[in-house]
Amino acid sequence: MKFLADLFKPLLTLLVTIVGLGFVASVLSPQVDALIESWVPAWAAVDPAEQVVRGWLGLDEAAEPSWWHFWGRD
Predict the structure, then answer these.
(1) What is the DSSP letter of 71?
(2) Residues 20-26: contacts with CB within 8 Å, 24+ apart?
(3) CA 36 to chain centre
(4) Contact call for residues 58 and 52 (beta carbons, < 8 A)
(5) Which of 8, 51, 52, 58 has minimal CB crowding within 10 Å?
(6) Which residues contact 28 (CB under 8 A, 6 or more apart)?
(7) 58: alpha, beta or left, given left = phi > 0 and alpha = psi -120 to 50?
(8) Furthest-apart CA pair in the chain: how many Å?
(9) Mean pLDDT of the chain, nearest integer
(10) Alpha-carbon torsion, ordered 48, 34, 57, 47, to 10 deg
(11) CA torsion sign, 33 to 37 to 39 to 42?
(12) Tens of pLDDT along 39-54?
């Protein structure tokens, strides 16, 4: 049994690392998210989690117009 554990531990570590880095990249860049979803269609299942993390980080908010763009402000 120890042989199987020694065999699968590095593989599991690589899998978790790749999925974690993919998630971080897809949160930060919608283009990367679309690329990953084109390769792995099941990746679309993590969209709700991505939206929550983007909300926490403030990445989904519309950009406020610059201070000198006084026209178009409400």
Answers:
(1) T
(2) 23/49, 23/50, 26/50
(3) 10
(4) no
(5) 58
(6) 59
(7) left
(8) 70
(9) 88
(10) 0
(11) positive
(12) 999 999 999 999 999 9
Does residue 62 have a pLDDT over 80?
no
- pLDDT tens across 14-31, in order? 999 999 999 999 999 989
Which tokens sit at 22?
Answer: 């993919």
CA 1 to chain centre: 35
Contact 52, 44 (CB under 8 A): no
CB burial string 40-68: b at 16+ within 10 A, e below: eeebeebeeebeebbeeeeeeeeeeeeee
Residue 3: burial class (beta carbons within 10 Å; 0-12, 13-18, 19+): exposed
